[in-house]
Amino acid sequence: MGSKGFERGPFKVKWFPIYQRILSEIEREIKIHPNYADLQNQCGLLLTVKGNRKEAESYFLEALRINPRYREAVLNLGHLYIGMERWSKAEAVFLTESKKHPKDGFLRHVLATLYVQTGRFKEAAYQFQKALQHYPSYRGPYKKIGIWQGGKIFLNEKVKRESRKIAPNHHQAQFHNLIGLFLAKRGKMAQAIRELRKAAELEPNEFLFHANLGTVYYYRGDFQKAVEEYKAALRIDPSYGMGHANLSYVYGLIHRTGKALQHLEKAVRLSPGYADLHYNLALLYSDRRRDEEAISELKKALRINPNYLFARVNLGVLYEDQEKWKEARREYRKVLQITPEDQQLRKRLERIS
Amino acid sequence: MLKEDFVIQSTIRRTLIRNNVDYTEITFGTVRGVVYFRGRFKLAQLYTDGTKENALEFTTRSLHSLERKIKSIPGVSDVVFEFFNWEKEKGKWVPKDLKEDRSK
C-alpha cells in the first residue's frame, strides 16, 4: 500500500510496504494490549510520519494517559505540535517537561528552536545558553549552524530556517529507529542497519541511535563496527552505563579482556544497581586472579539479588581457591537448597566436606 | 585452550541471540568453564505451521542446536541446564508438562 490519501507534510520518507505492514502489526497488537503505552506511542509515531497527524495526536495522548511520565511520548507529542504550528500547546508540553528536568539540555534546545520559530529571540537565546550549559557537546552543531559565534549566542534567519527542520527531523529519526529495531528483531539485520543509519544521520547527536546500531552490528557479528558505534554513543553521553557494559561484552568476544575490564568497571561505577554487571566484573577479576576484588563484586551482586545462584557458585569456588572451606561449603549448601539436582555442585561440596 | 569465564560468558550471550532464544527469562553463568542455565526456555520466534506438534519439534531441535553450540565454545567443559519447562531425559529434550502428563 502506498501513501495515497495522506499528506505527509515535511517528511522525506517514501512509504514502503514494509512500513505499512509494521503499522498494521502494531495496530493489531494495540487491539490485544490496549494499555501498553509503548505501542500507542509507536503507532503515533508511524502515523505522524505517514502524515495522519490528528490520529497520531490521539495515540500520543493515550500513551500519556496510560503513563504520564513516558518521556518519548511527551517528546513526540511536543514535536507534533511544533510540526502543526500549534505553538502554545508545544510550549506547554516542553515547558512542563523542562520544569521536571531542568538540567535536560535537549528540552532547552527544543524550547529555544520553538522560540526562534515564533520570533521570541530573547527567550530563545536564554534557552540556547541553558542547553549549552547542560550539554556542552552542542557547541559543535551550534557553531555549524551559526548559533554559537565568538562565545555568544547569535540568532538570524539561517537559524530560523534550520529550526524549522527540528520537529520533522526528530520524528523522522525516531521513525527510522523504530523501524530499524523492528527489523532487527525479525533478523533482517542489513535492512535494520540501513534504517538506523538514517536515524543517526538525521540526529547525529542522539546517543540511542548509535547504541542501537552498535547492538545490531553486535548481533550481526560485525564487532569492529559495533565497537565504533558504542564508542560514538559514549562520546555523546559518557554517563551511559549500559553502553560501557555492551562495549565490554563485545571486547570479550574479540578477546580484548583488558579493554573489557576498563569498560565494565566504568559500567559498574555508573550503574551500581545491576547485579549482572557486578557478576560479569567478578568474572573478569577472577580470570586475572584478582580474587579479592572478584569476591567483593560477587558479594555486591548477591546483596542486590540474593537468589543470584551463579554468583553464589562462583563465590564458593573462589573461597575454595583460598582454602576457606567453611565459607565455600556454606555457599554451595545455599545453592543446593534451591537446586538439589545440581550434580556438579554436589560433587564439589562432597570433595570439600 | 581458552579458559576465561568472561569470554565464555560473552560468547554465550551472543549464541543465545543468534539462536533465536528469548533470554529475558533465562539467567546464565560460567564457573571455571562450567556453564549454567536457569529459567524458562522460550524462543523469540517460532517458525512453524502453527500446530502444537510442530512447535514442540521446532523447540526441541532448537534446544539440541543450542546445546551443541554451547558445548563447542572453546573452554566450556560442561553445561548444566535447569530449565523450568524443559529437561533432558535419556539424551532427549522433553517439555516438563508433557512429562507430567505421561506420569499421570
Characterise the protein shown here.
The complex is a heterodimer of chains A (353) and B (104). By secondary structure, chain A is mostly helical. Chain A has 20 helices and two strands. In chain A, strands 1-2 form a two-stranded antiparallel sheet. The longest helix of chain A is centred in the middle third of the chain and has 20 residues, at 166-185. Chain A is elongated. With 104 residues, chain B is of the alpha+beta class. Helix content of chain B is 40%, strand content 25%. Chain B is built from three helices and five strands, in the order H-E-E-H-E-E-E-H. Chain B has a three-stranded mixed sheet, with helices on one face. A two-stranded antiparallel ribbon of chain B has the order 4-5. The longest helix of chain B is centred in the middle third of the chain and has 20 residues, at 52-71. The mean pLDDT of chain B is 87. Classes of the chains: A mainly alpha (353), B alpha+beta (104).
Main traits of this protein?
heterodimer, A: 353 residues, mainly alpha, two-stranded antiparallel ribbon, disordered N terminus, B: alpha+beta, three-stranded mixed sheet
